[in-house]
Write a structure and sequence with these properties.
Length: 179
């Protein structure tokens, strides 16, 4: 009888550990998805700000229609790799807008343009924070599913490692300052 009780206690402890680990992995997965949603919110905000900036810029030059089309195309549903690529393309579009502003000094001095530039700075900070939160959650999740004995539960539930949001190669280089 004592052996049976010991076996039941051991089985109950293993079952409790299993359920606790399973729930922990699911909670971390939710945090990863929440972080990904934060990146989507920041990218949407960035899109909206860029769209407004383009409206201001359009008053100064008509051919910027292609930039607007490019940004709209970038907004569709994307995988993490596609999000990284879209991020690079939006950086390029923003750079083109800034080059246009350099060509039109009256545009640079426009209050609307200055306000939009400040909004872009705020948006970029929000996007960076969202990326950091996402990557932090991915680190916790990936760590949870690869460590033993949690990896046994993770494998049984089909959990796979999540991708990090990575900086593009050009932004990993040191910035050269020429005066």
């Amino acid at each position: 009888m004592v052996i049976l009780i010991c076996i039941l206690v051991i089985v109950a402890l293993i079952l409790l550990w299993w359920v606790g680990t399973y729930n922990g992995i699911k909670k971390l997965e939710i945090k990863v998805n929440e972080g990904l949603s934060g990146i989507d919110v920041a990218l949407t905000k960035r899109y909206d700000v860029l769209t407004k900036m383009l409206d201001v810029v359009k008053g100064y030059q008509k051919h910027e229609k292609e930039i607007l089309s490019e940004v709209i195309r970038l907004r569709s549903g994307m995988t993490m790799q596609e999000r990284n690529a879209a991020n690079q393309q939006m950086d390029t579009a923003f750079g083109r807008i800034n080059m246009l502003a350099e060509s039109y000094p009256e545009l640079k001095s426009s209050n609307n343009f200055i306000q939009l530039q400040n909004a872009i700075l705020d948006t970029e900070e929000h996007l960076q924070a969202a990326r950091r939160l996402y990557n932090s959650n991915v680190t916790a999740y990936n760590g949870m599913i690869v460590t033993f004995p949690n990896s046994v539960v993770a494998h049984s539930m089909g959990a796979v490692a999540k991708e990090f949001f990575e900086a593009e190669a050009a932004k990993r280089q040191d910035v050269k300052m020429n005066f």
